[in-house]
Amino acid sequence: MVMMLDSPAGVTPPAGPYSHVARVDTGDATLLFLAGQIAVDDDGVLVGDGDMAAQARHIFRVVLGILQAHGAGFADVAHIRTFVTDLGMLPAYGTVRRELFPGTPPASTTVEVSKLFRPGALLEVEVTAAVRR
Predict the structure, then answer these.
(1) Euclidean distance between CA atoms 131 and 14, whole angstroms
(2) Quick one: DSSP state of residue 25?
(3) Cα 118 from Cα 131, distance rounded (Å)
(4) 16 closest CA partner among 55, 48, 44
(5) Residue 84, beta-bridge partner list
């Protein structure tokens, strides 16, 4: 088993001092553990202030870029963990998720938190994916 940490070029840089993904090659498969993503652009500016759907779309664009850099896509996502600051805004997030994950959705955990580390961030999303060989 081999593990590597990275932040793929061409993807919005991490919003803090961490790697975007831990990649674990097991021999039969590759597991990708994506760090929590918030909606910030390449300059670290919050995207979609007050707009759950806009933040979700931006986050999933970044997630897709990270997955693609490792030969994966949304079909390889096994689990999504979401931290939201207001469960009342969850329907807007759910609409975006259903657009991106039609059919049988991946496993999911959603947690309401009082706030995230970035003012104005409405959600943070972590993804685990399994790349088939």
Answers:
(1) 22
(2) E
(3) 31
(4) 44
(5) 112, 123
Torsion of CA 75, 69, 57, 39, to 10 degrees: 140
Over the stretch 97-123, which tens digit does the pLDDT of each residue have? 999 999 999 999 999 999 998 999 999
Where does the chain show beta strands of DSSP type E?
A: 2-6, 21-25, 29-37, 77-84, 107-112, 123-132
Q: pLDDT for 22-31, tens place per residue?
A: 999 998 899 9
- At residue 35 the predicted structure's pLDDT band, cuts being 50, 70 and 90, is very high
Residues in Cβ contact with 28 at an 8 Å cutoff, skipping those fewer than 6 apart = 133
Contacts (Cβ under 8 Å, ≥6 apart) of 41: 12, 47, 58
Measured distance CA(131)–CA(133) in Å, rounded: 7
Strands (E), 64-122: 77-84, 107-112
Q: Write out the two tokens for 128.
A: 């685990």
Angle at 57 between CA 90 and CA 24, to 5 degrees: 95
Q: Measured between alpha carbons, how far is 110 from 82 in angstroms, rounded to an integer?
A: 5
